[in-house]
Specification:
The chain is an alpha+beta fold. The chain is built from three helices and five strands.
Length: 106
């Protein structure tokens, strides 16, 4: 199991609920958890990647068509030192869905 997790918002629209199962199938080595709100209601589904000592990423407007790109992200994120992905071009459409990338604490 990876040392980081995906967090999927299942808030006001509820649209993240079915997506969680799809993401778990697409990325079986990554823990996928749900949260009730990530405050990006204008552009669901919101997906974050976070881990201790790793950069955090928040993507919005994510859907089933992005599962392959999320698999690619998972591979790149796991391999990147402290989770900092220098070149986002191989991540396909995800690089246009990125709301923020937050450096690791400390």
């Amino acid at each position: 199991m990876a040392d980081w997790q995906f967090v999927v918002c299942n808030g006001c629209s509820g649209s993240g609920k079915g997506f969680v199962a799809e993401l778990r199938l697409a990325c079986p080595d990554v823990n996928v958890v749900e949260t009730s709100c990530m405050s990006v209601c204008s552009d669901p589904v919101t997906v974050a990647a976070q881990g201790v000592g790793r950069a955090s990423y928040v993507f919005s407007g994510i859907g089933a068509d992005d599962l392959d790109d999320l698999k690619g992200f998972a591979t790149a994120y796991t391999a990147a030192p402290a989770g900092w992905i220098e070149d986002a071009r191989p991540l396909g459409r995800l690089r246009f869905c990125l709301l923020t990338r937050i450096p690791a604490l400390g």
